[in-house]
Amino acid sequence: MGITSFYFLCFFAGILIVYYIIPKKLQWLFLLLCSIAYYLITDSAVLILYPIFSVTACYIGIRVIGATENERNKKVALIAVIAVNIGILFLLKYINFGVYTVNGIAKFMGHKGNVLRGLKLLAPLGVSFYTFSLLGYVVDVYYGIAGVQMDPVKLALYGMYFPTMISGPILKYRECGEQFYAPHAFDYNRVTRGMQRMLWGLFKKLVIAEKLSIIVSAVYGEYSSYSGTYIWIATIFYAFQLYTDFSGCMDIVLGMSESFGLILPENFNTPFFSKSISEYWRRWHITLGVWMKDYVFYPLLRSGFFTRLNKSWKKKFGKKRGKQFTTFVAMFVLWFTVGIWHGGAWKYVIGSGLLHWFYIVMEELLEEPCVKCMKRFSINPESRVIGAIRIVRTFFLVCIGDLFFRAKNVPIAFSMLKSAVSTWNPDVLWNGDILNLGLGGVEFIIVIVSLFILLAVSLLQQKGSVRDMIAAHKLPVRWLIWYILLFWVILFGSYGPEYNAADFIYQGF
């Protein structure tokens, strides 16, 4: 039951009504029961055992950590919980990554046939999201920055809250966990604001992402038939498809949660306005970036190996360069982890991981020489023109990563990249050939207009909450704006009895 379907909207409406009718002390338990029901309806029923097992393991871990003063016992409990959860995640999502890598190396060395055979295992819904949310909580309990949840049923709601099981965000218990169990009185403004955000998410997903996917699938599905501008168009459209798909899902999830009185962390902050790749990742999938820094990057830098490496390289390369090179090595591990989190394939490791590591390393190494060069030629590095150039450059680099992310595999990605730069055919932009990729003239205009609406709203977001700006207008104006958006989705969105909206792209991660 996809969250853009009519049945899901009915499911949500029913939950919302009952949620505010029942006694407030039972609201959290009702949400847990609804989460279990959604899981059983949407996924294979037996797969619910995976999140239940993860919650159970984490609960036992935090109880042991909280009940003992012995540091060794605490560390053993922490390592055991991490090993169990990461072991399950590896088995379900990444075991075949190792198998295919070994088979590929063997084939390259002349071995005929496969050395290893892959496993066909079904992964539960949102396995990467709930695993990271739970593990982050256990680590916080270990370091004493989060309290111990004594009720395993309440912990189950935190780990299995159904909106976040779809595509996140990754939660931190110390920031939002306790609000799941607090009573929430009905608030008309809060509920309507939540529904407004859900509508904006439906606009992104059904009007923009679903239509752009037609062109993207046409080119990437028959990549050998297209070259030059076609590939650039499909790749740029894929960047917008990925953004509107993922951020649209987040708008629906956060809006739905807001209607329940739950404020979850933001996952996007207009990432395409970023002037560097580092800034882009502070604005894109924010909760993943924060989790990786808090639980992978900083612990790595504090580890004994990196402490010794830092001292050694400071003596060899100087204090500044030694520290910088040590950080680059830790960043390599970080970005490999980010890439592998997205999926068990090298295209993810490169497209969402190591390529971005390379970008950031080059940015840091070249930033100072570039600024000196601009000042030498009397160019203000903080000027609007330079800022715009940096935004375009960052978007282009992101698109290259997205090409690897979307291509079937790494060799095909390189083939498409070569074809994109070796053919000059910009005439497809005005001779009408672009309309042969699956979208007719009217639909293409609808997509372009919708993208401009998205751009306008994103620009307004730089000044504050757009919903607050709309709420400041008189009632007729407010209703007119929201009804225009509603009918835009109804008239131009991709949905209906014979249409099956694609799953959210990040739902599989």
Characterize the biggest β-sheet: none
User: Helical percent range?
Assistant: over 70%
Structural class: mainly alpha
Instruction: Write down the overall geometry.
Output: globular
Number of DSSP strand runs = 0
**SSE order, as H and E?**
HHHHHHHHHHHHHHHHHHHH
* Mean pLDDT across every amino acid position: 90
Strand percent estimate: under 5%
Low-confidence stretches: none
The whole-angstrom Rg is: 24 Å
- The number of helical elements comes to 20
Straight-line N-to-C gap: 18 Å
Describe the 3D structure.
With about 500 residues, the chain is mainly alpha-helical. It is globular and about 65 Å long. It is built from 20 helices and no strands. It has helices spanning about 5-20, 25-40, 50-65, 70-110, 125-140, 150-160, 165, 175, 190-220, 230-260, 275-285, 285-300, 305-315, 320-340, 345-375, 385-405, 410-420, 440-460, 465-470, 475-490. The chain is about 70% helix and about 0% strand.
Jot down its keywords.
mainly alpha, 509 residues, 0% strand
List the helices and strands and how they pair.
Layout: H1 6-21, H2 27-42, H3 49-67, H4 71-108, H5 127-142, H6 152-160, H7 164-167, H8 173-176, H9 188-221, H10 229-259, H11 277-283, H12 286-302, H13 304-317, H14 319-342, H15 346-376, H16 384-406, H17 410-422, H18 441-461, H19 466-471, H20 475-492
Helix pairs in contact: 2-6, 3-4, 3-5, 3-6, 4-5, 9-10, 9-18, 9-20, 10-16, 10-17, 12-14, 13-14, 14-15, 15-16, 16-17
